[in-house]
Specification:
heterodimer, A: alpha/beta, Rossmann fold, six-stranded mixed β-sheet, four-stranded antiparallel β-sheet, 41% helix, B: alpha/beta, 2 domains
Amino acid sequence: MSAILECDEVVRVFGAVRVVDGATFAVDEHSVTGLIGPNGAGKSTLFATIAGSLKPNSGRILFSGNRIDRKPAYRVARAGVVRTYQAARVLTRMSVLDNLLLASKGHPGESLRGIALRPRAARAHEQRTRARALDLLSLVGLDSYALAYAGTLSGGQRKLLDLARVLMLEPSLILLDEPMAGVAPVLRVELLEHILAVRRDRGITFLIVEHDLDFVMQAADRVVVMNEGRVLTVGTPAEVRANEQVVDAYLGTAR
Amino acid sequence: MSPALLEVAGLEAGYDDALIVRGADLVAEREQIIAVVGPNGAGKSTLLKAIYGLIRPRDGSVRFDGEVVTGARPDRLTRRGMNLVPQTENVFPTLSVAENLHVGALVLPREERRSEIERVLELFPLIAERMGQRAGSLSGGQRKLVALARALVARPRLLLLDEPSAGLSPMAIDLVFEKLVEIRSLGIAIVMVEQNARRALGLADVGYVLDTGRNAYSGPGEQLLDDPRVVELYLGGSGTMRTSRG
């Protein structure tokens, strides 16, 4: 299996703190890779450097063999890497459905030419997009809120909308930052199943920061463990669970 | 018999034209941990905000220590002994950790602030190491601990916690839930909203399951965990996805 994402000695410094301190690991294409570690290990910062919203101080990040560590976030996203946020960001003054429609790309109706020359194609595309958005909303349990302002959603619901947004985009690599925090247990099972189905049917790769270990252990093929800005170990969920260093640094009694 | 520490009756609250909490009841006695669980959007956070006066209830009542405090200002409630830790945006990011705690202690007499902060720091050695660091440079989980400590230095009798375990590593969750038991033993009551329902209900003296802004079920925490109706509505039937250790 080839690597879709490679982080090579990535360093990111805030003031005097080396939050990411030489992180090196690879994410296999079509895999679900878990990224775990204690609070403050540098997971979210690493996410931001991969997604291009932060520049690494040193080190290289390769996506499909091409360097992305010097690219701005929008170009990283266009290349096929999108992320969600721990505290989800939604467009509060737009409807829930519009939040999703805006996320999808390549509308023929976006350009005057598209509308003028291929009106039927533009309309058909819009209908398909809309149908898919509604499907995704029902998946995350938000279908009855489709026409409500996204600003009226609760914290947990906003995370679900954010998750639907990245699924709408269908990029090559999805970075999920704690998708399950604040999500009701009954929904977690469904979201896990969906993520696995998306990977299987569409070949999308997932890199997931998550503290819900049961989720990580069920979802992930491989798990990367970070501690103090570095990669402590990489392995299958079972290997990681049995690793004494991981138990000491992270799992405690939770294994 | 003295009145309950917190008594919420028929509370209704929401935003603009959306009514989110539609007649919720809740009672917390001294030294009790109360867990409020429920599906996303059930109105759990809004309930906490309405109790703490961040949004004005449209109907119903909140009694704290026997006195009606419905719609009272949050700062007044903090002085009376109620404090809230929000889900996000719960620290002052441009202030240092030490300054955050100092702000939390401002409701105390000047001469007691320092000793109270030191007492709380004994509960949180992880924070004590980072007193000079800007709170905005902390990770999500570390901020949670600072926010909890900030609320505690005001010496509350009732703590309202919005998802204390979300975003925390398994070890940190163990730590926080241990702290909650310690906090209870100090005589402080806790009302927490949690998605880590099995842990929260396992710990709680009383649990409330909220659905569409109303009380669906309530009872001793352990009992709710075994209630098939609660499993159906909220926990999920398979049991394969036990959150954390379950």
